[in-house]
Amino acid sequence: MDEKTQVATALQTALPDMSIEDIKNKLERPKTNKNGDYAFPTFFLAKELHKAPQMIAGELIEKIDQTGFEKVVAAGPYINFFLDKANVGAGILKEILADPEHYGNLDLGHQANVTIDMSSPNIAKPMSMGHLRSTVIGNAIANIMKKVNYNPIKIDHLGDWGTQFGKLMAAYEMWGDEEAVKADPINTLQKYYVKINTEADEHPEYAEAGREWFRKLEDGDEEAVRLWKWFRAESLKRFMKVYDMLDVQFDSYNGEAFYNDKMDEILQLLNDKHLLQKSRGAGIVDLSKYDLNPAMVQKSDGSTLYMTRDLATALFRKRMYGFEQSLYVVGAEQSYYFQQLKATLATMGFTWSKQIHHIPFGLMTLNGKKMSTRKGNVVQLEEVLDESIKLARQQIAEKNPDLANADQVAQEVGVGAIVFHDLKNERTNSINFKLEDAVKFEGETGPYVQYAHARAESLLRKAGNPDLAGADLKLNDEESWNIIKLLGQYQETIKRAAVKYDPSLIGKYALSLAKAFNQYYAHTRILVDDDQKLARLALVQAVSDVLKSALALLGVKAPDEM
Ligand code: ARG
C-alpha cells in the first residue's frame, strides 16, 4: 500500500461514507515538516455537518485508526498525519524485495491496445540521429505503457515509398555502379541521391526523369520494382543492425509501400462524402473548419502522397488492432502535418481520430550543427554508437582493468549512454548532442546511473548476498528515509510518465535515486556489523532493483559490474 492510500484508509475509519479515492483527492502535502507528511482539511464538511471545521477535526481525530503512524493530530481545521517512517520504510523495502520485477506496476490500461508508430526511417538513406530519437522515445513509451498494463504494438512505418525513389532510380540509371552499391548500399545510394539533388538546379531534366521513374514504379514496371526491392532489402539489413545494438524490436515493419493498394478506398470515401476538391488538378480536402490549410491527398498527375498513405495507415491500424490510443513518435517539425491528418480523419467521420496522438520531439543537433539528409551532412547513427562504445571501453580500462566481460559491458554502457542522454531531456526540448558529455561516468548521465547500480551490486556481493527476506527492515536515519521516500514514489512517477508520454520523468527519477544513493554510500558505513546491517543491505538491494527497473523502462541495460 502506498503512503497516501495508508492515510486515506486510516481516515476512512472515521469517514465511512467517503471512498478512498475521494479522500485521497482531498489530501494535501504540508509545506513544512512540523505539520506532518499529509494533511486532511475539513472545511468541505462544515456545511453538511453544520459545524465549524475545527470542531470537525477534533471529533474525527477520536475515530481515526492511528496504528502505523508516528502520530495523528488535529491542528485547527486540519488533521495532520505523521508517518511512522521506520515502519513505512520497512513496508516499502519488503514490497520491493518480494517482487522487484513488478514493483511499480499498475493497471491503467486494462490490456487495451496502443499502437506506437516509431523509428520509421527512410530506405536508401542512413538512419539519422532524428530517427534515433523516435526509436528510443517510442521504445521507452512502449515499455512504460506495458508497465501500466497497456498492450503496446510497435510499428516501424518505413519510408519506403514516394517520389524520392523515382529520383534515386534516375540517379542510379545515370551513375549507378552495382558493385559499389553492393559493397556499401546505403552510403552509395545516399551519394547518388545527394548528387542528383545538388545538380538538379542546373539540370531541370533530372526532375522529369525522377518523376518518370516513380510513375514506372507505381505502374509496376519490372526494372523499377526490382531496384526498389533491392534498395529496400539492403536498407532494412542496415537498420536491423542498429535495432540490434539498441535491443529494440518491432511488431510490424509495414511501411508506406504496404498501403499502396489501400489508398483507393480512402480516395473513394473522400469522394463519396463530397470532401475531395480539385485545386489546379490536385485533390485536396478543405480543413478551414479546423483553421488548417487544406490537406493534399492526390497530385495533379494522379499520384498519391505521404498524407494519402497515412490516412490509409490510420484506418488499417484501427481495423487491425482496435487501438485505444494510436501514437506517432515523430519530430516536432511534423506537428502541423499531424494536425491535418487528424482533422482529415475527423472530417471523414472517424470519431476515433481523437485517439490519435502525435508525440513530438525536438531537434537533435550534433555539436551545434543541424543534420539533414538531402544535402548529405548526416551523422550516421551507427558511427555515433560505435564511437560511444569505444569511449565507454576506454573508461572501463582506466577504472576497472580487470573486468571480466569488459566488451559486453562497454557495449551496454556506450549504447546506454546515448539512449539515456536522449531520454533524460523533456522530449520536446532540442538536444545538442556531445558524445563526450553523454558517456561521462559523472554528472547527469546514463553511465552515472548504471554505475550506482553496479556499486550497489558490488556491495551486496561483498556482503555475501545474505538472505534479507526475514530481516527486520526498520531504518530510522534521515538519509535512508530520503532514499526510501524516493523508492515509494516510483509508481507515481511511472503513472505520470505514462499519462504524459514522457520518459524523461523516469530518467530524472533514476538520476535522483542514484544521487541519493551515492550520498548515502559516501556517508554511511553500510557493511559495519550492527543490528541494522541487514536493513541497510535491504535498502541497497531495493535501490539496485529499482534503478535496474527504471533503466529497463528506458531501454538501458544495468550491468552488475562496470
Ligand atoms: N519516414 C518519416 C520521416 O523520416 C517518418 C514517418 C512517421 N510516421 C508516419 N506514419 N508518418 O520523416
TrEMBL record:
Fetch the Pfam families from UniProt. Arg_tRNA_synt_N, DALR_1, tRNA-synt_1d
Recorded hits in SUPFAM superfamilies, A to Z, give:
Anticodon-binding domain of a subclass of class I aminoacyl-tRNA synthetases, Arginyl-tRNA synthetase (ArgRS), N-terminal 'additional' domain, Nucleotidylyl transferase
What range(s) does the Arginyl tRNA synthetase N-terminal domain occupy?
1-83
Q: Record's family?
A: Belongs to the class-I aminoacyl-tRNA synthetase family.
> What InterPro entries does its record include?
Arg-tRNA-ligase (IPR001278), Arg-tRNA-synth_N (IPR005148), Arg-tRNA-synth_N_sf (IPR036695), ArgRS_core (IPR035684), DALR_anticod-bd (IPR008909), Rossmann-like_a/b/a_fold (IPR014729), tRNAsynth_Ia_anticodon-bd (IPR009080)
Q: Outline the extent of the DALR anticodon binding domain.
A: 449-562
Location in the cell reads: Cytoplasm
Catalytic activity of the protein: tRNA(Arg) + L-arginine + ATP = L-arginyl-tRNA(Arg) + AMP + diphosphate
Q: What is its EC number?
A: 6.1.1.19
**Which source organism does the UniProt entry give?**
Limosilactobacillus mucosae LM1
Name this protein carries in UniProt: Arginine--tRNA ligase
Tell me where on the tree of life, at the top rank, the source sits: Bacteria
Q: How does it assemble?
A: Monomer.
GO BP term (any one): arginyl-tRNA aminoacylation
Q: Where is this motif: 'HIGH' region?
A: 121-131
Q: NCBIfam families this protein is in? A: argS
Q: Which UniProt keywords apply?
A: Aminoacyl-tRNA synthetase, ATP-binding, Cytoplasm, Ligase, Nucleotide-binding, Protein biosynthesis
Q: Which GO terms describe its molecular function?
A: arginine-tRNA ligase activity; ATP binding
Does this entry carry the keyword rRNA processing? no
HAMAP family of this UniProt entry?
Arg_tRNA_synth
Question: Which Gene Ontology cellular component annotation is one that this UniProt entry carries?
Answer: cytoplasm
